[in-house]
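Below is how a single chain appears once it has passed through the pipeline. First comes the sequence as given, then the structure the pipeline wrote out for it. We keep one example in the README because the format questions we get most often are answered faster by looking than by reading.
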Amino acid sequence: MQLLTAWLFISGLMLTVLGFRTFFQPVIGLLLLGLAFALRPRLGRLDPDAPTLREADAPALFELLHRAADSAGMRRVDAVQFTADFALSVIPYGLRRKRCFVLGLPLWAAYSPQQRIAAMTQALGRSAPRNVRCGVVVGLALESLTAAAQALQAGSVLVTSPSRNSVSLGAAAVADGTQRFNARSRKSEWLLWIPRTALAATARLLLWLTEPTARRAQFEADDASARAASSPVALAALRDRRLARAISLEMHRLAIEKRTIVKAHTPAVTQDNLWEVISAHAARLREQAMTRPSEPHSPSGVPGSTGNDADAQRIERLVRSPQHPAAITLDGPGRARIEDELHVPKQTVAQRVLRDGMRL
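Resulting structure:
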């Protein structure tokens, strides 16, 4: 992919600089340069708007992350960023491909302390070098293809209608100009359709080819999670992934309630107690799931299955695998130190959630 991008750039540059004797060569050169720019490698960067902590800012949190990374056999992370997503992930950034741990505070609030260790280890293990989708070559190619396809995604054809009255001065000229503009928009949409479709098809092909390796890395990350936090806790963390939608809806409801004039009978939610409210809501959801009668034909035959085929397969595999005790635990003072370090990022993310709501 990088070689193709370099070839497009060199060819486009030569056609643009050396092809001025004709009209078509510079135009083709500019098109190739535009395609090369869309396919440029994305080295990744930290989100400037997300709260970020370094090891000097949160030594207790980074100590836990380092223990989880060492348990999974992964390279340690260099930064931690906080989001309002129900997920944990590791992303590379910069020329040196440093690693940033993206910590979703809704998941952190919903999970128990030991489940957090399981989820952290699983996220770290999922970014292993043996997972080619996270590697330099395939990972950069997938990011470039996806970003290029999105950049060329024009969406619906831009169609405008004249806003002037039909009997006003110059209405005919406005209508004629609008018609020509809409015709050019449709032509540009057809021109963008060919490279956009080719890029999207190549990305899908690459995902299909790397599916076995990615699935194997996922299973190995589950094993590392079970060894770090114990097999029962790893299973509980995997099953609690089903809480993501309900917790996002609850956060969205709390944000709307915060901005409405008519207040509910419950105490007002602030940025200081949002995560406690989410934790209590997750506990209620677990109690409801336990009291609800289980379906006799649940996916994979595992009680408490999430209903997702991939998750059901992972749960069934962990149930049948050898059971492990916890290798990483946190005492009360250790958890308190981590919560103190997360106080400011929690407030920042909670303030944004209550102000802007949640993307559903």
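The two ends are 34 Å apart (CA to CA).

See the next section for the split statistics.
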